[in-house]
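Q: Give me a protein?
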Amino acid sequence: MSDLTGKVALVTGGSRGIGAAIARRLADEGAAVALTYVQAADGARQVVKRIEAAGGTAVAIQADLTRPNAAAEAVEQTVRELGRLDILVNNAGFLTYGPLAEVSAEELDRVLAVDVRSVFLAAQAAANHMTDGGRIISIGSCFNGRVPFPNFVLQATAKSALIGLTKGLARELGPRGITATIVDPGPIDTDMNPADGDSAEVQRDLTALGQYGEADDIANAVAYLAGPGGRYITGTALAVDGGYTA
């Protein structure tokens, strides 16, 4: 268990899938949670209701992270509504694939805006509010360590950028007692990559455990890094991938 009582967390892309599981788990550990969504207002409300029904505190923030100012605005709104910010979880992102020749400049800009630029800007804004013990946790991808398929150049590019960003944050913010880490999921059963999808058997076979993970597996890792157990872990990535990169 990770005691997060009295902490405030912001989870981007928290209305469904991995983001929703993270928001619920941090709330279960005692944190007040803000979560962002783009269009899935109903999903965001359901996550908030679930947290409140369990006695927690949560707010949903509409934020289109393709807009340059949206990430920082979400941070500022979290601080206004919940009083502070201790934990930033950069979860929002796209699962993108397709032949290199078919990736348009517009698609490249859109993916990098959410997967990289919004992470940078959210961290920049969050650092203005965090004190000793702050946590910046970004959700990466197993493609950071292994790209066994063609057609994933854009996905691998966007998620791999988090490695340098996280190491830089760790060095710059470490003297203030703020850590920066990445969690790299493998095949996780969500609506974006269902365990019964067309490519599920191939993905399953690439793991050492021979199975998909669940969103709660990622949430458990995030909760650990956000809590006391993560105090001496920074500038690195934790693979939660069933041995995909073994």
